[in-house]
Amino acid sequence: MNTPLVRFLATLVSAYILIAPCAHAQQKTPSKPFDLIEWNGGKFVYGVDYYPEHWNESQWEKDAQMMQAAGINFVRLAEFAWVKMEPTEGKFDFAWLDRALKVLNAHGIKAMLGTPTASPPAWLYAKYPDISAMDENGIRYRYGSRRNYCIHNPNFIAATQRIVTAMAEHYKNHPGVIGWQIDNELGDPDCYDAASRAAFQRWCRTKYKTLEALNKAWGTVFWGHTYLAWSEIPLPWNTLGKAHNPSLALDFKRFQSDSTHDYLRIQTTILRKIAPAKAITHNEMGMYDNVDYSVLNTSLDFVAWDNYPMFQKDYASYFGPGLAHDLMRGSKNNQNFMVMEQQGGLPGWNVFWGHQAAPGLYRVWAYQAVAHGADGVCYFRWRTCRYGTEQYWQGILDQDSYPNARYQTASQAGKELGQLTELLRGSKVISPVALLISPDSRWAFHIQPLVEKFNYNQQLHAYYNAFRRLGINVDALFPQSDFSSYKIIVASSLFLADKPLVEKLTEFVKNGGTLVLSYRSGVKDEHNVVTDQTLPGPLAELAGVAIHDFDPQTNQEQEIVDIDGTRFSAGVWFDILEPTSAQTLATYGKGYYAGKAAVTQNSFGKGLVFYVGTEAGQDYYDNGIKWLVQQVGVDTGPSLPEGVEMAVREKTGKKVIFLLNYTEKPQTVSLGQTYQNALTGSSEPAGVEIPAFDVKVLTTP
Ligand code: GLA
Ligand code: GLA
């Protein structure tokens, strides 16, 4: 039977087999944005990450009482409890979790269950040693930590399907379980074993169809790396001198991100089929970029993430977590989100990270999340563990369960957020300006950072802080986001600018938008290959500049000189700009290119394009953005003292204004009009005083 029809069907089947493991079919997101408050029975989601299995059962009732007294109505449970739920292969025990849920539910506390795949049982590793991920030297990680599994391993995938199915079946009708968190902080480690290599080769085959196309796209003619069979394609593993083809390396990043999405979808598919009424999320990591969250989140109902303000070294200022909140919100079309792990105490593993924060600051951070669009805050963790790697990572309570100052402030925030629920419900963050996040550029810079001091996030923070100092809300955009509603988009170091993105940015500017580009933009095509056009390549016409020389001399003292003669320090990278149609706004102050353009402005269509050829000190961004928003007509907020943030949520006819004081002194902000204090109902004077480490929530009547 070799009829044309049979041959046709066989082709379809083999095409499916080829595509299936990495299919990118994006699950449809509901057209109505997910309402977290409705989901939680009309309550603002206020919770803790709780590990009943870490404590004597006799403590559970008292825990639940203390939670309820603190306004807690939500817990996340079980995300590392695989061995408790499947003590031996295929034998399940949910009795302990049922009992814990009963205690919690009786106190009005609903639960989200974590699928426990981030920490597979020892028996699983003993039986299938190959479930461990292999590092770039060909050595498998040893048992003992967590997250050390390989997402391409068939034994691990089978074990995942088994535990997720069992949980879904057991809890599909449980009224006290309202949703699932998939795994825990997906994204690492990359696996370099034979199964992963074969999966990468299949991914490449699906993408490029022919080896000729792949060889051409990757420029494998260099060093004679041309591939004659798909099976010859390597991974970016430990080669001599760590030299990899940058195009292969970028595709490997994309493949890993897609594979993580595929692994997540193995779980979401089971959960949606068996328990369709329950919501699904994942605890993400803010600025973390091994996974393109804007793609991953197409398979989730809402975004959740883990916010540790004291743990992030590159946060640069108190605005830092705000940018991460905004990026997380932007990774799913600006929908409101929740914090699944909100720092509840001092972080520490073998050493403590930093000094203890004033107890009030933990409450201010919770409000910061809300101000940036969170409709839920869940603290990590209820109580510090007595044992294990994290015995110094503080929860709200310490091991002795004493209702300490952190518990008191968490209780205060719990009561207040309960009170604010109706006001917050349906309100959103609306921003006139946005930062464009380019996952491709971030990956390409990881592969080739170019200069030691370069850090993609550093510029995001610099522009972000400048807007926030002016009390302006900021959105984060991904290449597929809708650009049309913004007055200003900052696309810093848009290293890799593919054609569709360039066209979108061009449209945006043509229609009157203002685009800010910065150094090292338009350098690469979608294959991570350098353009053969004059830099900034496909963005040159928009920017109205040509770059025939650049200076990556990071050790050189450099400065830029504004048109009014003010000097600002500059570093990291220096694009030497030759305006073609742009006008010069600042020049370099030193070196052989002193006097050449460093910053330019170009008119294009109805809009403007700025090109900032270097990385300047924060004062330059503060000045420049202040000037720019005036030019473009973006409303600014009141003048804000150092250490105070203002953020606004809106719903029809109403504004909710958050004034957050991160300092140990009372601060005053002149709003120019009186507002109602949303908590007390009384009118606040036009000069609002915010006590030390405190917050004011104001609203229009
Ligand atoms: C050496 C090698 C060249 C090239 C240059 C620059 O001289 O022989 O092939 O790699 O270094 O790296
Ligand atoms: C992450 C993890 C948690 C815990 C905390 C604190 O956010 O998701 O399980 O390890 O860090 O270390």
Descriptive account of the structure:
This protein is an alpha/beta fold. 32% of the residues lie in helices and 20% in strands. It has 19 helices and 27 strands. Strands 10, 11, 12, 13, 14, 15, 16, 17, 18, 19 and 20 form an eleven-stranded mixed beta sheet that branches. The protein has a nine-stranded parallel beta sheet with strand order 5-4-3-2-1-9-8-7-6. Helix 13 (359-371) links the parallel strand 8 (337-343) and strand 9. Helix 7 (154-171) packs parallel to helix 10, helix 10 (246-274) packs across helix 15 (439-447) and helix 16 (456-469) crosses helix 19. The protein is globular and about 75 Å long. Mean pLDDT is 94; it is low at 1-30. Bound molecules: alpha-D-galactopyranose (GLA) (2 copies). One alpha-D-galactopyranose (GLA) is lined by residues 184-185, 283, 306, 341, 380, 390, 393.
